[in-house]
Structures are given as C-alpha cells and as structure tokens.
Amino acid sequence: LHLVALNFPFSGDMRADFQCFQQAQLAGLTSTYRAFLSSHLQDLVTVVRKTDRSHLPIVNLKGETLFSNWESIFDANGGQFNIHVPIYSFDGRNIMTDSSWPQKVIWHGSTANGIRLVSNYCEAWHTADMGAMGQASPLKTGKLLDQKVYSCNNQFIVLCIENSFVS
C-alpha cells in the first residue's frame, strides 16, 4: 500500500479525502486513497481495509518500504520509520527535502495508537482557526504519530494512504 503526500501543505481546514482522491487520479493512480488522518467518522487505524492491514507492506511512491504493514504503524512506538526512505508527493517530490513544505510536520489528529483525538483534530479538519488545535508529528523525529499539538492555522504536510490493494 502506497503512502503519498498531497502536492502542497494544508491548514486544518481541508477536504483531505477528496484531495487524496483527486491528486491520485491526476497522477494516474487507479487505487483509492484516503487521508492519513483521524476524522469525525473514522479512527486513523481503521482507514485501511481489515483484510489488508497485516500482510501488505506500506511503501513510498517508488515502492521502497516504509513499514512492514499497516498495523506496525500503530504498535505504540509512534509510527517509527526509516528517515532515509523518502516520502514523495503525488507529483514525485521528496517532502523531506523540497521547499514546498517548509515545515516538515504532518497532520494526523490521532493518538499513537491511531485513535481520534476529538480535542485535537481542527474541528474534524474544518477549521484553520488559530485558537483551534490539531495533533501533528514533526517528521524529523522519524515518527508519523509523534504527539505534538499545533494551532490549526499552520500549513502542514497531509499524507494519503492507498486504503485497499488492487492487483
């Protein structure tokens, strides 16, 4: 399953699932992509289909392994990954080195176990208000689910996960 970033950063007011769908289509990818975010409808841990959570590796756009499987992201170590394996945007840029993402932080709105944090997910990703808060992770920690709180007016990286495998 591919883990890919949106082509530009977003504040806490986003239509992330739609953006993931649209950018994947524009990139010529035929699978379904969902935002790597907890929402008012779903915890992050359940975004990938149950049948695909334990046996498929999580890879970047070029097929390099980031995680052995979906479940391993939520094993309470904060989604630790190898920072030397790049994460790419749908248009093929390395988010860790490209200046289009000046802040190397990803929104997630979740606990380390992938459960939604209702107090820290920018009002279900519908506000960029400075007073509202969102849970996010600085990628320099090498973790996708580090537990840091930021104001929703910040423009951060949004990741998308291929949520079902199509052979």
TrEMBL record:
CDD domains, per the entry: Endostatin-like
The Collagenase NC10/endostatin domain, residue ranges: 1-166
InterPro entries assigned: C-type_lectin-like/link_sf, Collagenase_NC10/endostatin, CTDL_fold
Domain of life (superkingdom): Eukaryota
Transmembrane segments: none
Protein name: COFA1 protein
Organism: Grallaria varia
The encoding gene: Col15a1_1
